[in-house]
User: Fold this.
Amino acid sequence: MSQMTAVNAISIEKGRAQEVAARFAKPKSVHTFPGFVRMEVWMKENIEDHDELHICTTWEDEKYFKDWLKSRENDKAHGQSIQEPGTTVKPKSNPILGAKLSTCVTLVQHLPAVEV
Assistant:
């Protein structure tokens, strides 16, 4: 097994990133899904025409992430059909301009050294 991270890069109307980021402030169903390790929300800096958030979820193994993608919980959380890696979606009537999902497998990881 190898940890993997799914990164959902969300393009947002300029000045509205904090509004969208607030949607991720409280844990949701993904946090209790088998194989879930952590979620991080990153804001990309220095983009002139729009804002961009990266919603990063790390999983014990790609199998767990694929199970999440196919789950009712995922469909309910996103209020739409299941999003496959590499797809772009443009929801109506909100600041989100589009999103692109990509996945990365962890090859090397360094954790803080433990002092003995």
In short: DSSP finds three helices and four strands in the chain.
